[in-house]
Structures are given as structure tokens and as C-alpha cells.
Amino acid sequence: xxxxxxxxxxxxxxxxxxxxxxxxxxxxxxxxxxxxxxxxxxxxxxxxxxxxxxxxxxxxxxxxxxxxxxxxxxxxxxxxxxxxxxxxxxxxxxxxxxxxxxxxxxxxxxxxxxxxxxxxxxxxxxxxxxxxxxxxxxxxxxxxxxxxxxxxxxxxxxxxxxxxxxxxxxxxxxxxxxxxxxxxxxxxxxxxxxxxxxxxxxxxxxxxxx
Length: 210
Known about the structure:
It is built from six helices and twelve strands. It is α/β, with parallel strands linked by helices. It has one domain: Rossmann fold (3-Layer(aba) Sandwich), CATH 3.40.50. Strands 1, 4, 5, 6, 7, 8, 9 and 10 form an eight-stranded mixed β-sheet that branches. It has a two-stranded antiparallel ribbon with strand order 2-3. Strand 5 (97-105) and strand 6 form a beta hairpin. The chain starts with a strand and ends with a helix.
């Protein structure tokens, strides 16, 4: 296992991933379960956020407690399927800024093609969590991470529901400094670049398309 790859091996997460994998799970159920998984993953991925002291008053007395230090978070979704992860993370982190990177995979070359980029002006000052449900070939995630670094991002993490060994190898070779968090590492990619056993095309399952 590569040192900066973390499998979030929680019983609830594993149970919910099983629901996502099931071909009989409806579109509505898929969205809801993915949202729940995303919230669980956000909790783990933000475990090392820095805190600083603050003085407040409870209904009973003054106290010194803690809150998040400095600039906060930005969640960047790789369109379109990344939005399914974004929404669950925003349930836990409602004040986070949001960015989007539009990438699609050319089905012939399996290489990413960029068509959209929109980031907060102060993205370089924030911890950025890059999200995409599937790390298959790894090319889209690696390209997105490179674009964020070009925008000045210094604090970056990548989060996906499922990863293939090939995708992990590609991403970590290009970005050994970026921690990678996933719900599971599956067996392999097939000839069409899909993760096996996987859960199918995440975008199609989120949005009911084919």
C-alpha cells in the first residue's frame, strides 16, 4: 500500500458501498446512499483540521473553547459525477467554498478533456478537497490535481468512493504529495476502463442516464 493512500474502512461505509454496488439500487436510493457515504468520508478526511482557541458565552457562563483556525475549506468537484459527492460533504461542511472542474474521459483514448474550470478567488489559501466517485485510470483526477496546483493550491486532498490499482498508481506517481482517500480498492480495470467489480458508471447512476 502506498503510504499516502488511506482506505476508510468503517463498517457503515462498507455497508453503504454494498448498496451502491447493487445493480438493483434505484437512482434515488443511489443518490441518498452516496450522500451519506460522502458525509462519513468528509468526517474522516477533515480529522486533522487545525483548531484555535476562542472565548464565547454559553447560556450559563463564559468559556474558552475551540473553533477552526484560519481560512477554511474548498471542495472541488470533478464534473459531473463529483457533484454527487460534493452534496454530502456540504451537509457536514456547509460553509465550505465550492469549485468545479469539467473533465470528461475520451472513450477512445481514455484521456481527460477539460471543458470548464471555476474556482474561488482565494482557493490558494484553503485546504482543497478534490472529489470524484471513481478513480479508474487516474488520468482525470491527476489532471484536476495539476490544474489546482497551477491555481496556487498548496493544501490538497483527493477523495473517491472506489479506486482501481491502476488509478492509484497513476495518481500517486504524478502527485506523491497529495493524500488519497477511498472507500475501497477494487480488483482491476477492464478493457473499457471501468473498475471491476465496481458499481457501474457513477454519473449515469447518479442521474438516471445511460
